[in-house]
Amino acid sequence: MQRVVLVLLALIQFLVVDINAAEIATFKINTTSSSEETKSSKMMKDLIKNLYERANYKVEFSHTTRKRESILLQQGKLDAVFARYRHIGDEDPNLIRLDPELIKAYGLIICQKSEFCQSYRHTTIGYLHQFQYAKTFCKEQKLNCREFNTEISLYRAMAAGFINVMVSYDVNIKILKKIRFDTQFFVKKLKELSFNSYHYLHIKNIKHLKQLSHTLTKLHHEGFIKKRFKRFQDESLSHKNITILP
């Protein structure tokens, strides 16, 4: 009899563990980045992974283009997207915004001559297509700006002197080495260009919105996200050829 009881208890314990494991939802999240990870994509993955794990969820990351991502969202084959600016994400009927913001940050002015950083309004400015806040900033300030589809084309334009200034939120040292550009850089915080980036869930996962929002709020209160972003930005600027201007 005692042996039967022990077997039953063991079976019950196994079933409880199995049920608990089944209750942990797994979210497939697309990054719209290339398979070659950048420091910024690694930082974002780290933030998203911490967010979901603290909310007791699992995460699976995928990589595809924005166009393919839109198709997968329409088909309901994705559970969330990495991060989008609010004016873009809110327009997609398949997405629901997670509040508060994932990242609150500011732009940087990057130039080869310090005087260009100080008087950027009178220069030719380049920015990456996906940095839509820079595009809006250029239009509102009526600046002379050029848009580039890839980081390497943006950096090459700077190296060749086609643009005087870049607007970004970091400096990609890896690309500078790739194009063998070893000139001194000056970087200045662009206080006029602050921006928020938001995480979005597929509308089918609305029941998880409250839990994730609560967890994200806690991460902000702990200073976790602010510290991670600052560390990422500091690391991108810690190079012998980069001088940070006041």
Judged by helices, strands and strand pairing, the structural class is alpha/beta
> How many beta strands in the DSSP annotation?
9
Largest sheet: 9 strands, mixed
- Number of helical segments? 10
End-to-end span in angstroms?
79 Å
Runs in which pLDDT lies below 50 for 5 or more consecutive residues are 4-12, 14-22
Concise structural overview:
With 246 residues, this protein is an alpha/beta fold.
List its salient traits.
246 residues; alpha/beta; D-Maltodextrin-Binding Protein, domain 2; 2 domains; 9-stranded mixed beta sheet; 10 helices; 9 strands; Transporter substrate-binding domain-containing protein
Describe this structure in words.
Helix 6 (132-141) links the parallel strand 5 (124-128) and strand 6. Mean pLDDT is 86; it is low at 4-12 and 14-22. With 246 residues, the chain is of the alpha/beta class. The relative contact order is 0.17. It has 2 domains: 26-104 and 196-236, D-Maltodextrin-Binding Protein, domain 2; 106-194, D-Maltodextrin-Binding Protein, domain 2 (3-Layer(aba) Sandwich). Strands 1, 2, 3, 4, 5, 6, 7, 8 and 9 form a 9-stranded mixed sheet that branches. Helix 2 (39-54) runs antiparallel to helix 10. It has helices at residues 2-23, 39-54, 66-74, 86-89, 114-118, 132-141, 151-160, 173-178, 209-221, 224-237; strands spanning 26-30, 58-62, 80-84, 95-111, 124-128, 144-148, 165-168, 185-202, 242-245. The protein contains 10 helices and 9 strands.
